[in-house]
Design a protein that fits this description.
Oligomer: single chain
Helix content: over 70%
Radius of gyration: 19 Å
Number of strands: 0
Order of helices and strands: HHHHH
Number of domains: 1
Distance between the termini: 13 Å
Strand content: under 5%
């Protein structure tokens, strides 16, 4: 492997590492329900002052659960991108790897949260995380089938897919 190829692979995978670290941080006690509610509740009350605290609780719950699918959806996008930029394999062969990376991080994060006094680990949250990954993978497949183009696949100067 040339230095140029190694650099290209490292550049492709660096965002995955950064985003996985960000997700891991979101799973810390600093982002537990009481902590994030201290931010979300005032924001929602400012946006919708007519709502009571009782009305806001389900909204905060929904936002927190939507965040799971969203953050893992982003992880899937950048992992899929890294796979497409650093390998020559077909999209369908990258899907198990993208799912495995995301699912392993989700399970590890929820496992860690289960041992925390401020957090609770949840299998439902893992399912939400994996659903975010699944939606991105499905969208990538639709793009490839419908438009005949693999997302993130580029051509190198030599003319072969890389």
């Amino acid at each position: 492997m040339t230095t140029r190829a190694a650099w290209r692979i490292a550049r492709a995978w660096l965002p995955v590492g950064i985003w996985a670290t960000f997700i891991w941080g979101l799973g810390s006690d600093a982002f537990s329900n009481p902590e994030t509610s201290r931010i979300l509740r005032p924001l929602l009350q400012w946006l919708m002052p007519e709502l009571t605290l009782r009305d806001l609780a389900p909204m905060i719950f929904f936002i927190r659960k939507l965040a799971h699918a969203t953050e893992y959806g982003v992880l899937a996008i950048i992992t899929l991108r890294a796979m497409m930029l650093s390998t020559r394999v077909a999209l369908t062969r990258t899907i198990p790897i993208v799912l495995a990376i995301g699912a392993l991080l989700a399970v590890a994060d929820e496992w860690r949260q289960a041992t925390s006094a401020a957090r609770t680990g949840s299998g439902t949250d893992v399912l939400l995380d994996v659903s975010g990954i699944g939606l991105v993978v499905l969208a990538a497949l639709v793009i490839e089938i419908r438009f005949g183009r693999t997302p993130f696949r580029t051509r190198d100067p030599g003319g072969s897919n890389a």
